[in-house]
Design goal:
By secondary structure, the protein is an alpha+beta fold. The chain has two helices and four strands; from the N terminus they run ββαββα. The chain has one domain. The chain is elongated. It holds the Pfam family zf-C2H2.
Amino acid sequence: MGLFSSSNETKCKKCGTVLTDPERLKKHQEVAHNKKKEKCRACGSEFDSSEDLRKHKKNCK
């Protein structure tokens, strides 16, 4: 067996959830395990993940 497994799955160290790629794992960890909310400085809206905040900022005035 080499350094890499034959599957492209990644596993969450906190809960064992298996996801298909590292970006999905990052999103899962932010939403499921991060108690801190991401807050928009312009309007005060709060989001579960930095990705959701980033999307929001495109349209926030």
